[in-house]
Amino acid sequence: MSTSSGKSAKRASPGYACTECGMTAVRWVGRCPECQAWGTMAEAGVRAAALTRPAAVTPRTAAEPISKTDSAVARAAATGIGELDRVLGGGLVPGAVLLLAGEPGVGKSTLLLEVGQKYAQRGGPPALLITGEESTAQVRARAQRTHTMHEDFFLAAENDLGAVIAHLDEVKPGLLILDSVQTIASSTVEGGVGGVPQIRAVTATISAIAKERGIATVLVGHVTKDGSIAGPRALEHLVDVVLYFEGDRHTSLRMLRAIKNRFGATDEVGCFEMHEEGIDELPDPSGLFVSTRDIAVPGTCVTVTVTGRRPLLAEVQALVSPYGASSGSPRRSFTDLDSSRVNMLLAVLGRLSDLQRLSEREVYAASVGGIKISEPAVDLAVAMAVASAATDRPLPANLFAIGEISLSGDVRRVSGVQRRLSEAARLGFRKALVPHGSDWSLVAGLKVYEVPTIAAAWQTVSAL
């Protein structure tokens, strides 16, 4: 009887786990039922199915009224990097655990060297960087090149969780940087380095120590091919803040975004510029996204996009050329723009009398400076740039356009019009196309034209 019951419990135990989301299953399947990823189910070993209630233990601290809880220990301290503080909501909170993810080579380690050096300069507890991917000599060479060395900035190369804890006991840091969490393994947990059990155990242990000792902790995370954080989905739930550091390797622009933040907003973005000697913050990055030229040229239009809470000027460029092939369809190529929306705009533009043969021509469109523009508020600028290129009529150099375009050709209202107008006026623009009925007030030196439809917008521009 008992033998049969034991075999039944063993068969009911999950023996496979998804390496992406951590979902468990009794049998192997080719596709994870939870995250729909293929080939991610790996054997996780047999676990007991019986659930038992744990025995009561003495709590570390007694419960007290929430009004008597000291909130000073959870107050954010500025890092000295304004763009990072903007995203974090004021700075680093003692005991908080941050997960910083990004593609290889985007500059995560360079940014964190800057964070560690700024923290060490403040005085007080030192900063500790533990690298599991590089040697200490490699990290020191980068720190020397980027001028981020300090006597209170400690460095160690470890891959064992026990050794990491020993360094914490010896150095007693106020800031811990672990680069990266997928390279650290615990000797008490089965599975290979970077596997689901190891990542979960390492993150949970480091998080518990950080909160117990009040250590601000930054964990560096790898990303998969589709841009998501590698490892179990539970990894994002174990930390307090999840940051993404993104940017094109071929451009100097880098952007830092928060997708989870227990201490601040998640709609802020920080801008940085990479160069040979390190990384610099960009409090006013709009100049990177707008070309500087003396005369107006066809096919360009400036817009104002809101990234997080920050209005940024961006320039859209378009090229329309004759289609010379005898068969097939004209080519459409769009860079850093939403291709589906641009194709929709081309169909709407084809109704205008000046652009009725647009479907027979090749169209190329892109944004300047490597910024990805996806919000509908830039529709009007894209449409004006394409119309300008198709008719070979340059738009006024000091004009910008904001507005969403519907399938009927109407220009719809967008949010934050006043902020967008003020930012463009601050940078010298004097004429604006905005949706009819927008909520805005007069800005000094700025002439605003309200347009109800895309046809009215093109007529207004042609008359300027």
UniProtKB/TrEMBL annotation:
Residue ranges annotated for the RecA family profile domain, each copy included: 73-223
Keywords for this protein: ATP-binding, DNA damage, DNA repair, DNA-binding, Hydrolase, Metal-binding, Nucleotide-binding, Stress response, Zinc, Zinc-finger
Motif range (RadA KNRFG motif): 260-264
Lon-protease-like: annotated segments: 362-464
InterPro entries: AAA+_ATPase (IPR003593), DNA_repair_RadA (IPR004504), P-loop_NTPase (IPR027417), RecA_ATP-bd (IPR020588), Ribosomal_Su5_D2-typ_SF (IPR020568), Ribsml_uS5_D2-typ_fold_subgr (IPR014721), Rubredoxin_2 (IPR041166)
Residues engaged in binding ATP: 102-109
Coiled coil start-end: none
Alphabetical list of PROSITE patterns matching this protein: RECA_2
Pfam families: AAA_25 (PF13481), ChlI (PF13541), Zn_ribbon_LapB (PF18073)
Stored HAMAP family: RadA_bact (MF_01498)
Domain notes: The middle region has homology to RecA with ATPase motifs including the RadA KNRFG motif, while the C-terminus is homologous to Lon protease.
Family: Belongs to the RecA family. RadA subfamily.
Function: Plays a role in repairing double-strand DNA breaks, probably involving stabilizing or processing branched DNA or blocked replication forks.
Protein name: DNA repair protein RadA
